[in-house]
Design goal:
CATH superfamily of the largest domain in chain A: ACP-like
CATH class of chain B: Alpha Beta
Structural class of chain A: mainly alpha
CATH architecture of the largest domain in chain A: Orthogonal Bundle
Radius of gyration of chain B: 18 Å
Helix content of chain A: 40-55%
Number of helices of chain B: 2
Largest sheet of chain B: 6 strands, antiparallel
CATH topology of chain B: Thiol Ester Dehydrase, Chain A
Oligomer: heterodimer
Radius of gyration of chain A: 14 Å
Order of helices and strands of chain B: EEEEHEEEEH
Structural class of chain B: alpha+beta
Strand order of the largest sheet of chain A: 1-2
Number of strands of chain B: 8
Number of helices of chain A: 5
Distance between the termini of chain A: 13 Å
Chain lengths: 127, 177
C-alpha cells in the first residue's frame, strides 16, 4: 500500500470518527486542536484503524496512556527529558521537535497529527 | 420515573448481537409534554402530538448495546456511554407501537467498545408490515475504571443496577451480578 493510499484510508477514518470535512484532514492537522478530537475519540480512531487496515493496535501503542499522571515524566507542568525520551521510544511515529522546544504538558496532544497517524500505519503495515 | 427504556431482551448472541424491544404506551408521562397541543401565532390550534423523544430512543439503544458490551466481560466493567457516533431516525414512534433495537458489537478492548445499531418500528395497526426500519444509532462505550486515572469510583458496579438485573432475569438471561 502506498503512502497516499494509507493517507486516504486514514482520512476516511478521521472523517468518520470526528465528523470533520475531508479537506480539514491535512497532514499537519492536530487531532485535538484542529480536528476537535476528545479522549473517547482516540479509542474510536484506534477501533476504526483496526477495521480499515486489519491490524491490531495495543493499548497505548498509538496514543500514550496517563503520561500526565506519572511524576517521573511530568514535573512542574512540564514533560521531563526522561518523559520525552520515554515517549519517543514508545511513539516512534510522532514528531517531538515542537514539544521538545516547549515541553508544557498541555502541549502533548500536539504531537498527534494526521501525519503521525499515517506514519504509525505505515510502520504497522511494514511489519 | 424508572430509567429503563427497554422492556425485554429477546435475543443475545454473546459478544456479537443483542436485540431488545420497547413498547411505547400512552401511560408514559413525558409523552404528554412531547408534544402538547399549542396555539399557533395565527390563533389556530395545533393538536397534541405524542411521540417518543429521539433522545430516549438513543437511550434505549444505549441500554441495549450497553448490556451487550457489559455481558462481553461478564459485567465486571462499568460500561458508560461515551459518544453517540451517529444517530439517524426517519420515523416517529407513537403510543401503540413497538421499537426493536438491534445492537451489534463492532470492537471491544480493555478501554471500551464500539457498537452499531438499527432501530425498527412495529405499528400494531399495520401488523402485516412487520418491523419497519426506523433508523440507525452507533455508539461508543467507555470502561470507566480504565479511563479515569487518578479518579476512584465505588467498587460495586453501579451501572448494572437492580433494574438491569430484573430486566435480564425476566428476559431469561443468566445474570452473574
Amino acid at each position: 500500500m502506498t503512502r497516499d493510499e494509507i493517507f486516504e484510508k486514514v482520512r476516511e477514518v478521521l472523517v468518520s470518527a470526528l465528523a470533520v470535512d475531508e479537506d480539514e484532514v491535512t497532514p499537519d492537522a492536530v487531532l485535538t486542536a484542529d480536528l476537535g478530537a476528545e479522549s473517547i475519540d482516540f479509542l474510536d480512531i484506534v477501533f476504526k484503524l483496526e477495521q480499515a487496515f486489519g491490524f491490531k493496535i495495543g493499548q497505548g501503542e498509538l496514543f500514550p496512556d496517563n503520561v500526565a499522571q506519572d511524576p517521573e515524566y511530568v514535573q512542574g507542568g512540564r514533560i521531563t527529558s526522561k518523559g520525552i525520551a520515554a515517549l519517543k521510544e514508545r511513539l516512534p511515529h510522532a514528531d517531538f521537535s515542537s514539544l521538545e522546544a516547549d515541553p508544557r504538558v498541555e502541549r502533548v496532544g500536539e504531537i498527534f497529527t494526521v501525519d503521525a497517524v499515517v506514519r504509525f500505519c505505515e510502520r504497522k503495515l511494514a511489519v | 420515573m424508572r430509567w429503563m427504556w427497554i422492556d425485554r431482551v429477546v435475543e443475545l448472541l454473546p459478544r456479537e448481537r443483542l436485540v431488545a424491544i420497547k413498547s411505547v404506551t400512552a401511560a408514559e408521562e413525558h409523552l404528554y409534554d412531547h408534544f402538547p397541543a399549542a396555539r399557533r401565532a395565527d390563533g389556530s390550534v395545533r393538536e397534541a402530538m405524542p411521540i417518543m423523544p429521539a433522545s430516549l430512543i438513543v437511550e434505549g439503544m444505549a441500554q441495549s448495546a450497553g448490556i451487550l458490551v457489559g455481558h462481553a466481560e461478564e459485567f465486571r466493567e462499568k460500561v458508560v456511554l461515551a459518544k453517540v457516533s451517529r444517530a439517524e431516525l426517519e420515523r416517529d414512534a407513537i403510543p401503540g407501537t413497538t421499537l426493536r433495537y438491534t445492537a451489534e458489537l463492532r470492537s471491544i478492548g480493555a478501554q471500551g467498545a464500539s457498537t452499531e445499531g438499527t432501530v425498527e418500528l412495529l405499528d400494531h395497526a399495520r401488523p402485516d408490515e412487520g418491523f419497519v426500519r426506523m433508523g440507525r444509532i452507533d455508539l461508543m462505550f467507555s470502561h470507566l475504571d480504565r479511563n479515569m486515572a487518578g479518579i476512584a469510583f465505588p467498587e460495586h458496579n453501579f451501572v448494572f443496577s437492580e433494574s438491569f438485573r430484573t430486566l435480564l432475569k425476566t428476559s431469561g438471561i443468566d445474570c452473574p451480578f
